Amino acid sequence: MFRNRNVMFCVFVLPCLVFSKLPETNPQLDQLIRNALENNRAIMVQQQKVISQSNEIITAGSLPNPSLSAGYFISPVVTKEGPQEWKLGITQNLPWPGKLSGKEKIARLRLDIENEQLRQVTLQVVSDVRATYEQLRFLASEEAITNENFDILKQLESVIRLKYTTSRASQSYLLKVQMDLLRLEDDLISITAKRPVLLAKLNQLLGDTTIEDGLVFDNILSFEKDLPAIEYTGIEKNPQLLTAQKSISIGSEAVRLAKLSAKPDFSVGLDNIILKDGTGKNPLMVRAGISLPIWFGKNKAIKESANAKLAGADSQLQDVRLSLDAQLESLNYKLDDSRRKYNLYIHDLIPLAEQNYKVAESAYLSDEVDFETYLNSEKNLLQAKLEGAKMRLHYFTSHAEYLELTAQEF
User: Which one of 37, 48, 80, 189 counts the least CB within 10 Å of its CB?
Assistant: First the structure.
């Protein structure tokens, strides 16, 4: 009963701890994560695997089922008590001491692995929700920035039309603006078409199709002055690493069990001999037996196989550690690079682009600069804002991957 309670705690309570450890910084995102933890199908599948493996512990640590036998004497054996007609017997096999406990230990270690897999799936789901949410936020920012520049170009088109009527602007200027407007219209169509794709992915992560296009993103035309800091840590809590370590323990126990394969098993039994027509008192016979592990080639193969699996598990652990270290270095680079570039755009490039645009706009209206200079300033402002939004997207998606890799939330 105590073991089952622990399993239920791991299956149904631990995933919720992921959410309980998160800072309350974004109620909308927090609610999405909560829904995913409660309804995601991949998490539910892994929860059932944990429950299934917990029952395997009982199976692995239990004695084999006793066998019941019956026999009929075709030619009755005549004894002093009378002729023997039937023989009923029951036999219980008893493995060598340590075999059952070893199998139970392996089953427990496999349960630990299933729990680590549950952590891995949960962390991945939370990471995917975060990344998809950030992609939707970037899409909203991209749409708002594009619409803002569309309005700017529409105003510029009106100015050029007015100048064109007074022969102060070339028709090619008007055509260039109209071409840029068409491009922006096409960009807006692509942005609108991409949103249902991301919402479908989010619905899949949440385990239902109830999420509509109702997500609200505040201040999509403004940027944070600084991005949240990252708590840099190692990979020691990573489920893949812990799974590989558990596999080493399983391999070591399997090697110990392989050595016991050369040890005999025992059996005890009881026979009841039934005399014909109840002519006398039915005699009882107690039996005992022992297996003979005389196939030395088989026992040697079992040991060599276990040793090979242990060596493979050790190599797998080293490979997993090296792979995770490489991923960690890559994410550290991505986080530092995207944060540095974000700060560059937010604190320097975007303000300079805005200032340049305002100066160029005023100068163009007063015929102090040419049309190309003004149009380039508008394009530079658009590009700077979009790049700033992209750097924010890259930072938060890398942040989500980092939290998953280091298992900080669970």
Answer: 80
- Burial 111-129, CB ≥16 within 10 A → b, else e: bbbbbbbbbbbbbbbbbbb
Is the pLDDT at 23 greater than 50, yes or no? Answer: no
What's the mean per-residue pLDDT of the chain?
Answer: 87
Report CA Rg, the chain.
Answer: 36
Find, among 376, 387, 402, the residue nearest to 176 by Cα: 376
Q: What is the pLDDT of residue 213?
A: 55
CA distances from 406 to 29, 42, 396, 399 (A): 20, 21, 15, 11
32 near 133, Cβ under 8 Å? yes
Angle (nearest 5°) at CA 59 between 55 and 65: 145
- Burial class of residue 1, CB neighbours in 10 A (0-12, 13-18, 19+): exposed
Give this prediction's pTM.
0.85
Distance from chain centroid for Cα 193: 28
146-159 per-position pLDDT tens digit: 999 999 889 888 87
> Which tokens hold the place of 9?
């705690």
CA pair distance 234, 211, nearest whole angstrom: 35
CA distances from 269 to 96, 263, 291, 345 (A): 17, 20, 14, 83
Instruction: Kindly list the distances between the CA atom of residue 47 and the CA atoms of 19, 41, 90, 265, 386, in Å, as whole numbers in the listed order.
Output: 17, 10, 39, 36, 42
